[in-house]
Structure formats: C-alpha cells, structure tokens
Amino acid sequence: MLNGHRSNTERPGAHSEVQSFSTMGAVMNPHHPGLTPSLAVTAAARMNVKRVSVTASLIAGLFFSAFVLAAVPGQIAFSSNRSGNYEIYRKNLVTGAIADLTNDPANDMNPQVSRDGRYLAFYSDRTGNNQIYKIDLLNPGPVARLTNDGASNYDPAFFPDGRILFKSNLKDGYGDIWIMDANGLNQRNLTPLLSTTEEWKPDATSSTSVAFVSGLRDASEIYTLDLTSNALRRLTNNQLPDWYPAVSPDGARIAFVSKDSPNSPDALFIITVDGQGRSRITSFPGDADDPAWSPDGQYITFVGRNGATYDIYALNIRSGQIEVLESDPRGDELSPIFLPAPNDPLINLPPWRHAVF
C-alpha cells in the first residue's frame, strides 16, 4: 500500500503484485505542523534493535508522558526482496536471528498470522498468478496452497474463528472481499454487490464485521460490512485516499494510512471502529505505511522510507517513541506483523465467538 493509491494490480509488494514504485499521485505521510521529527539513532542499541527518537503526534486519550522503554519484545514476520525476490522472513527481536520461512524463487508477499500464532498466510505468484498459501509455524514443512483458480488473490487476513479473508478478482475484475475455511474450502464472496469498485485489504473488526478499503484511484475510503445484516458503513470521508486498515486486537480502533495534502508523504492515522476521532499518529521524515498492531495493542509496526529503501519500525502507542526493528540496504522490507507466542493469554483477548453467517 505504498506510494499513493493504486489498484491492487498496480500496488507493490505490501499487499499486491510486485511492481515498480511508481505513484498515482504523491506519496503519503505529511509532517504534522508544529512537530519536528528527529531521526537521530542513539549510541546504545539494545538487543539488536536500534533506538530512534521520532516525535509522534498525540493520540487522543492514549498519549502519556514519554519514557524510555526496553527494546520491543517478541518476533515479527515481514516480506523482503533482499535476496533478489520477495521472501517471508521471521525475526526474533531479542536475539536478532532472522529465518527465511518461504525460500522459493517466486515472490511471497504480505504475511498475516492467525490469532493463536500458529499459522501464517501469504500470497505468492509461484504458479504465475497470485494465490493464497499458508505455513504452519509450529510444524514447518511444505506450504499449503489454499486457492487454486484463474483469478488473482491477495491480502489474506485471518478471521477470529480461523477462516481466512482475502481479496479476489474471480468474479469481479476490480476485486471483492472473500472468505474461506482455514483449508481453502467454502470460498464465498462477501461483497458481490460492490461490482463497480475495487475492494481490498480486509481485516475483522469483530466476529461478525469486516473492515476493508473500497474505491477506485483517489476515491478510496475505509468501510465496514456487517456479515449478518450485510449493512455497509463508511468510516472515512476524505478528499484524499484512506487505506490499509489494521484493526486493534480489542476491535476498538483502526490504524490506517492517509495524508494531509496531495503532495505530502504517507502517514499513519487512527480512528475508532465507528469512524470517530481521526488523528494522525506519526510525524516521519518519509513515507509511513503498512500498519499492524502488536497482540497487546501497545505497539504498531509499519514500514517507513527515509532514504532509498523501506525499513521496519515500531511505534509505541503510549510514549510516541519509534524503534527501528529491521533494516537491510539490499532491498525493501514490507508488510511487517508481530507474531504472537502460541498459548500467550493475550491472543485470547477479546473473547471472540464463532459466528455463523
């Protein structure tokens, strides 16, 4: 979802086909008036995580006095083309160890993790067109292919009950939001009535509701769909594109990408799940894209470009402090996510219920 709004056949690896980083308009992330970002790396890098001081804008009701924290804990997964093609990598933020999870000559993109931390879904062009695949992180082995059709499928995201949301152009040349069982069966189009717009980047807001982006070109906005009533609700109404929604673990807030002006770079914003309280949460020297929450809701990881390539950062919601989690001059790091530890009690909050619809 980098460099301004593009259709899913044009956007680079963050959540669609791998393409060059050409834009349809300016890149996103405005400097907030009155805020002066600083990107001075301190000498004391902890646990292989470089500490960066970047002023972040206030989050209404969430900003506390800034304080120094230990390095961001846990693990992340991300996509990178450091080896010449895009692979899915896992990094231990404590030890710094990095493992290639896919190791395939194709382009493997946009990892998303199940709520229990066991499975990783992604899309890949290993058969010529993009299809959805899944990895068992506890029992590594051959990846499982979940979609097998003539369409292009992108943007996988786990539904709370283990099913998988994704974007497909199977019956709509623009693209719709679909859902399927964890094994790829029972695929169903959730947005067949949205036949004149492109829909992409789904993420569950509850056990019965999905957020996604809908629109074409500069008209992209964030919507939610109630899966029991099929009620569609528009959450953003902006003259500039709003996209790449990422729902907080408690389902209360949505982080997304937008901008303040047509010529400003990408920035991260936040709203409540009913579309209220829009606030910009980053003031970054370059683009800030691809937000994803930590399981405890205390961090948002994202990719930022302050030079030739995209690197991975984490924003501490309370302090506004930004950490560099991964950087490699050989290529771009895209689509970072936190990996919850299996059996971590945090992954069971809130108590999602299986919904039949």
Essential attributes:
357 residues, mainly beta, 4-stranded antiparallel sheet, 26 strands, 0% helix, disordered C terminus
Description:
The structure is a single chain. The protein is mainly beta. Helices cover 0% and strands 38% of the residues. The chain contains no helices and 26 strands. The chain has strands spanning 40-41, 50-53, 75-80, 87-92, 98-100, 108-113, 119-124, 131-136, 144-145, 153-158, 164-168, 176-180, 188-189, 198-206, 209-215, 221-226, 232-234, 243-247, 253-258, 267-272, 279-280, 287-293, 299-305, 310-316, 322-326, 333-339. The strands form 6 sheets. Strands 1-2-25-24-23-22 form a 6-stranded antiparallel beta sheet, with no helix packed on it. Strands 5-4-3-26 form a 4-stranded antiparallel beta sheet, with no helix packed on it. The radius of gyration is 19 Å and the shape is globular. The model is unreliable at 1-70 and 345-357 (pLDDT under 50).
Write the layout of secondary structure elements.
Layout: E1 40-41, E2 50-53, E3 75-80, E4 87-92, E5 98-100, E6 108-113, E7 119-124, E8 131-136, E9 144-145, E10 153-158, E11 164-168, E12 176-180, E13 188-189, E14 198-206, E15 209-215, E16 221-226, E17 232-234, E18 243-247, E19 253-258, E20 267-272, E21 279-280, E22 287-293, E23 299-305, E24 310-316, E25 322-326, E26 333-339
Antiparallel strand pairs: 1-2, 2-25, 3-4, 3-26, 4-5, 6-7, 7-8, 8-9, 10-11, 11-12, 12-13, 14-15, 15-16, 16-17, 18-19, 19-20, 20-21, 22-23, 23-24, 24-25
